[in-house]
Write a structure and sequence with these properties.
The structure is a single chain. This protein has 194 residues and is α+β, with helices and mostly antiparallel strands. It has 2 domains: 87 residues, Response regulator (Rossmann fold); 100 residues, LytTr DNA-binding domain (OB fold (Dihydrolipoamide Acetyltransferase, E2P)). 31% of the residues lie in helices and 34% in strands. It contains 6 helices and 13 strands. The strands form 4 sheets. Strands 8-7-6-10-9 form a 5-stranded antiparallel β-sheet. A 3-stranded parallel β-sheet has the order 1-2-3, with helices on both faces. A 3-stranded antiparallel β-sheet has the order 11-12-13, with no helix packed on it. A hairpin with a 2-residue loop joins strand 4 and strand 5. 20% of the residues are buried. The mean pLDDT is 84.
């Protein structure tokens, strides 16, 4: 079951926010599955379910959110899921946007930059498989991101300051190797922010 879950998640462009893992799944155990999940997505919330306490310390190594015994599942599952939901709804942790009738969220720390092309804003993240875009004007997005460690460097780009590696002339070099232009209009803001 763990192998099937991993195969499914590898082929999907989106990733679940919360995963419940049984320690006794076949072929590959829960800890090994969680290690592989962390390679794909280090930020998902993993909740382990097991019959015994024997793997609780191993669960710390994969940054498990909670470890629940099967006998106590009825008592603790609802409380644990509510705690996970509170974490997911933390406005300071996630950038939330709407596309069509669907709502999405991306961790701020995973966003490298926003790029605008004809009122469609693409979110470039540190996960190249992730595809995120929505409709909005850049000036409105810039106001919404105020105080979130992002800086506008160009009419078409807002960049996460944590990913800026170098500033040379009118170009920003980012940690992923991308280079973004700096327009004259925003150069002073960029220099002051770095």
């Amino acid at each position: 079951m763990g192998g099937e879950l991993l195969e499914y998640l590898i082929t999907e462009s989106s990733f679940p926010d919360v995963i419940l893992l049984d320690m006794q799944i076949s072929h590959i155990d829960g800890i090994e599955t969680a290690k592989q999940l962390r390679i794909i997505n280090k930020d998902c919330i993993i909740i382990f379910i097991n019959s015994y306490w024997d793997k609780v310390y191993e669960s710390f190594k994969v940054n498990a959110f909670q470890y629940i015994l099967i006998d106590e599942l009825e008592h603790y599952l609802s409380e644990t899921l509510n705690s996970a939901l509170e974490l997911l709804n933390d406005q300071d942790t996630y950038f939330q946007y709407t596309f069509g009738k669907n709502k999405f969220r991306v961790l701020y720390r995973n966003i490298i930059y926003f790029e605008s092309k004809k009122r469609i804003i693409n979110i470039v993240t540190n996960n190249p498989r992730e595809i995120n875009y929505f409709y909005k004007r850049m000036d409105i997005l810039e106001k919404e991101l105020n105080g979130k460690h992002f800086i506008r460097c160009h009419q078409s780009f807002i960049v996460n300051k944590a990913y800026i590696e170098d500033l040379e002339d009118d170009v920003l070099t980012l940690a992923d190797g991308n280079k973004l232009p700096i327009s004259k209009r925003y150069k002073r803001n960029v220099v002051d922010a770095i």
